[in-house]
Amino acid sequence: MQYGIENEKGTLMSLMQTVKDQAARVRDFTVPTDQMVMITSDESSNDSQSNVTQIVLEKQGGEPTRHFAVNDVALDQIAQKANLDVRTARRVQQNYPHQFDSLVNAIWQKEPSVRMLRTFDSPTAPNHGIVRAVVSDKFKTFDNINLLESALPQLIESPAQWQVVTGSVTDRRLYLRLKSNAITGQAAVGDIMANGIMLSNSEVGMGSVSVAQLVWTLACLNGMQSEKRSRHSHVTSSRADGDTWGVLTDEAKAADNLALSLKVRDLVTDYADRDNFDATLERMRDAHNDTIEGGPSAAVEALGKVLQIPKKQNDNLLDGLMATIGQSGYENGKPISRATLVNAVTRVANNVADDDVDDWQKLGGRVLDLPKSEWQRVALAA
After folding, report:
1. What SS3 class is residue 141?
2. Best CA proximity match to 142, nearest among 1, 258, 226
3. Where would you tag: which of 81, 109, 152, 158 has the fewest CB atoms within 10 A of its CB?
4. What is the pLDDT of residue 1?
5. Which band of pLDDT confidence, cut at 50, 70 and 90, is reported for residue 100?
6. Residue 134 has pLDDT above 80, yes or no
7. Is it the case that residue 109 has pLDDT exceeding 80?
8. Are 229 and 208 in contact (CB under 8 A)?
9. Cα 37 to Cα 55, 85, 137, 235, distances in angstroms
10. Is 164 a residue whose pLDDT tops 50?
11. Crossing angle between the packed helical segments 86-95 and 72-81, to the nearest 10 degrees
12. DSSP per residue over 105-121, as a string?
């Protein structure tokens, strides 16, 4: 029986189309750095434009000379691999482009290593494109299309009745978050929760392939990551085959990806299981009984220290807690509990950039699972 995925805003279709379009343009190269040349244009006379950096791969072994514009992600990776401070490198690239090229080219020539260039072909200019990542030649190319094609059939055929909550793809990451309309439960009066799944991936070395169980609070659609998560690094054995550069074939990628595709499929099935959700729901029920004895500000300060949250983020957490306290019930003497703090943390996730949502949702899960000794530091803070 086909159950499908509820997708009333068209998020999934739009996301899938973007991923398919990008997959059709992907071209990956393993390249010794002494075969690469950096050239940065000087746009200092044009106040409205920033300098543009290119990488040129000279003609090699039957492959034509190729020219690639370098995006911000790749530019930062080039700086990091050269042991340069990223902020300083950005400033030099913009203000002293020729000196920037000379420095990087000298490092590439004098300290050669093999890199993988992850690129998009230009749809209009042959042998041109965009370098979107400069990563190790050990990088495993499990792409967004691989993740979605592994996971979506399991989601579509699941009786969990999945619904898309959010989905996006940026230069850095893909995220897809779903909730179940069939696997739900009550943690406390007025606190209805639903099972969920989060899929994420970075094709450019900014994060692992990740499948995680989410638990959604339906009243405010806050999402918390439970301890049920699996992350797989994009690292494998070296692909280098000497001192020439070459194209990484689709056949080589497929061989690498098969085992991980099967793992993703199994994880999606596992995290859709009612028993996994019920275990987290039971911990949320217990969390409603873990109340604090001091005030909210003291509890948040103590929680920030336990979780090692920077002060600016701790201020965001306090705002989230005060907003949560402002909901119906607290003004009538309802105690602030561990569950309140979980909801406060995950509320922050609704108001941050996509690349930061994952961190806050994981923090919510950490609050739920704090060891007794650490929870006491929060509960007794005054």
Report:
1. coil
2. 258
3. 109
4. 40
5. very high
6. yes
7. yes
8. no
9. 6, 20, 18, 26
10. yes
11. 120
12. HHHHHHS--EEEEEEEE
The radius of gyration of the chain's CA atoms, rounded to the nearest angstrom, is 24
Residues 178, 172: Cα–Cα separation, whole Å: 20
CA 22 to chain centre: 17
Confidence of residue 340 (pLDDT cuts 50, 70, 90): confident
Q: What's the CA gap between 181 and 163, in Å, rounded?
A: 7
Q: CA–CA separation, 170 vs 157, rounded Å? A: 28
Tokens of 75: 């530019």
Angle in degrees, CA 69, 74, 99, rounded to 5: 70
pLDDT surpassing 90 at residue 2 = no
Helix axes 296-307, 354-368, angle to 10 degrees: 100
Best mean pLDDT range from 1-15, 22-36, 245-259, 331-345? 22-36
The string over 254-288, giving b where at least 16 C-beta atoms fall within 10 Å of a residue's C-beta and e elsewhere, is eebbeebbeebbebbeebbbeebbeebbebbbebb
- DSSP calls for 301-327: HHHHHHHT--HHHHHHHHHHHHHHHTS
Closest CA to 224 of 330, 366, 98, 109: 366
The two three-digit tokens of residue 244, written as one number: 């020439």
DSSP per-residue string spanning 51-114: --EEEEE--BTTBPPEEEEE-HHHHHHHHHHTT--HHHHHHHHHH-HHHHHHHHHHHHHHS--E
**Element spanning 165, H or E:** strand 162-169
Written as six digits, the tokens of 151 are 């996971």
The pLDDT of residue 114 is 93
Q: Residues for the chain: how many in total?
A: 382
Note whether 173 and 359 are within 8 A (CB).
no
Helices and strands in the chain: count of H runs, count of E runs: 12, 12
How does pLDDT run across 353-365, given as a tens digit for each residue? 877 888 888 888 9
